[in-house]
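To: structure desk
From: M.T.
Subject: fold request, one chain
Message: Could you run this one when you get a chance? Sequence is below, nothing fancy, just the single chain.
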Amino acid sequence: MDFLKEGLLRVDPGLLLWTIITFVVLVLILWKTAWGPIVDALDARAEKVRFEIDNAERTRQEAEKLLVQHKSMMDNARNEAAQIIAKGRDEAEKMKTEIVDKANIEARKLAERARKEIELAKDKALSDIKTEVVLLSTEIASKIISKNIKAEDQKALVEETLNKIGTVQ
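Reply: Done. Structure tokens follow.
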């Protein structure tokens, strides 16, 4: 243990006392002069950090509100678009139904008009045939009256009349 008595690890009571006094004086001087500004700087930094955290929290809450509003607006826009599409489909279906109904009505009118025209043509044809029959009958009667007809002549007149009727039809 000789090295404790001679070297750097040797304890000198006077030096120890002065070292403690110097340390206490230095701590008191630092306490009075440097400790206040250091504590104030740390407090200011802590306040600034708290302010930044509060500001970040407010910004986050505002961002969440804006996100909720944006989602709401998007949902509303989707709903409106769906309503517009549904309304367009309904109107298109309604127009389609109206067009089909009008076409059916027109087709019925045309069919009815064609039926009437056919009936009129049929009636006219029958009227024409009746007129021809009357004329031919009158002609035969006048020939019979004007001639004294034999059975062969009468048969020939009937055949001739039937041929005329056949060509008229």
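Reply (cont.): Residues 11-168 form one domain. Let me know if you need anything else for the meeting.
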